[in-house]
Amino acid sequence: MSRAFVKEDGNDLEPLPDLPLSPHPNYVTPRGLTALQTRLRDTQERLALLRARPDRLDKLPEAAAERDIRYLEARLRSAMVIDPAQQPLRAVAFGLSVVVADEAGVESRYEITGEDEADAAQGRIAPQSPLARALIGAEVGDSVIWRRPTGPATLEIVAIEHPA
């Protein structure tokens, strides 16, 4: 094989494209801000370990860590911290926990958090989600329509609380 087509230096790996940033305001809870800061620190530590490897032929993990650091730094720069403890409990709002009952009377709890903190398995939803948009502004006793892909659902607001 001709050496003319073999790349030997491997030092010119282009940076990976940046991860897309949300066009929405970056509201975060204090817990969400701490989580972003922790993720950034952990990613910076991982990058330092990758750069300290004796065999650095594969630079892709380093490029991925650098990309993730750029994303996390951008999210931290744009973060607008809202403390749920300072939110009044009159209506559903960012950072608050809400208990709803569906048409069958089954209760569920949701907490409206920042996008980076959202986790459906823990009942944490982003403010831009269809469920959060239906809930925000509602008061205890109100019924709201949650427009789901499987069809609309009516939910009654049972309680509005500060998260535990």
Automatic annotation (TrEMBL):
Residues 91-161 form the Transcription elongation factor GreA/GreB C-terminal domain. One of its GO terms (biological process) is DNA-templated transcription elongation. It comes from the Bacteria. Pfam families: GreA_GreB (PF01272). Gene3D superfamilies: Transcription elongation factor, GreA/GreB, C-terminal domain (3.10.50.30). Residues 1-10 have a biased composition (Basic and acidic residues). InterPro entries: GreA/GreB_C_sf, Tscrpt_elong_fac_GreA/B_C, Tscrpt_elong_fac_GreA/B_fam. Residues 1-26 are annotated as: Disordered. Keywords: Elongation factor, Protein biosynthesis. The keyword Protein biosynthesis applies. PANTHER family: TRANSCRIPTION ELONGATION FACTOR GREA, TRANSCRIPTION ELONGATION FACTOR GREB. This is GreA/GreB family elongation factor.
